[in-house]
Amino acid sequence: MRGEETEAWMYFRRDVVPFAAMFAVECATVGSSTLYKAATLRGLNFYVFIFYTYVISTLILFPLSIIFGRLPSVKSPLFFKILLLGLVGFMAVIAGCKGIEYSSPTVSSAISNLTPAFTFTLAVIFRMENVRLRSSATQAKIIGAIVSISGALVVVLYKGPTLFAAASVSPTISLHQHLSSSESSWIIGGLLITLHYFLTSVWYILQTRIMEIYPEEITVVFLYNLCVTLISAPVCLLGERNFTSWILKPDISLAAIMYSGVFVSVFSGLTHTWGLHLKGPVYISLFRPLSIVIVVAMGAIFLGDALHLGSVIGSVILCIGFYTLIWGKAREDTAKNVAGSEHYSPLLLTHIIEDEALPLR
What we know:
This protein is mostly helical. Helix content is 78%, strand content 1%. It has one domain (2-329).
């Protein structure tokens, strides 16, 4: 009986908890985009949103870094690298927020599937990924990257007819959508969101290099948020000089800022780091396509967003390319693990290596 209980607990901790945590992260990220979009419809300035979000996350992470982390020396070159990481992250956030203002959280969620393709391409350029053109894994990753980019272009360039609209839409939202959902704004928003996820991929590459040098997750996340706060302060103050915009009231704007600071900057960042250690990057990446389903539901319920044919077609193409890329990455990792094991015979290893070198069927 005790053995069955132990096995059940191990299954719960190894499989159930990570699944629930990663699903919660996707819900939190989509919820932040939806709340931000709703807050902008009621006058929230995105400079105010960005600055206050990082102030809140920095204040939360500061005591955690002291208790559980280890601060590096002030003379360490790590600070310059984290400052560069903060600059890239700040530019990514600005592009993402402006992109959502011009388009919608649905478009942002669909284009987010481009992140693996961008990350893979940059990893190849910086020699963090091995490329063997005769390998089926490499072929799958290249094809997946191309298909993902094609799907994103469909979402950006083709809006299409409305397939689903909310039953009731408030006058404020209808007016805003009428004024800002033109084809030109839709394309500008999509391009800005694409830039956001490209910069996010650059951020992943830089973060990986930093973690190789200094594997202290909480400390690195705290220093990153601190750098973004310091970078955003002069930029945001110059971008929004109206003092009344900085006075927050207990309404949806304050809720959006608090939510983003706590659940995105802190919770999602730390949970992703924990998940990467426990299950690896492939497992974490598999949850990204869930966001398109979550955002459609939240957008229809809270924003009155319409679902367009272009978003559906582009999302399907994106998911196909995304899972092709993930399959190639998983196949490559499996081959590496088997090749590094001492429990397989040379004959079996030869068979696996030969199969890995076959073209993609």
